[in-house]
Design brief:
Length: 74
């Protein structure tokens, strides 16, 4: 994420509850994925969970991008 987007997110976290929720979820998913990526081996179930988390993170990121696009236009 580029610095301009980060500034826009930080500036609007208090004013936009949806953005705040999505950002918190994004950070949590990122942490979980980083933890999984540090492991040398993942079981089949863990690999499936990793894919699920990646999809959730991507969906949240897409929604964050929609909100940022709206904020840039405002």
């Amino acid at each position: 994420m580029d610095p301009t987007d980060m500034e826009l997110i930080q500036a609007n976290l208090d004013n936009d509850p949806e953005l705040a929720k999505l950002w918190a979820e994004h950070l949590e998913l990122e942490k979980k994925l980083d933890d999984m990526n540090q492991r040398l081996y993942l079981s089949t179930e863990e690999q499936i969970e990793r894919k699920r988390l990646q999809k959730l993170k991507l969906a949240g990121r897409d929604r964050i991008e929609q909100i940022l696009t709206t904020l840039r236009g405002a």
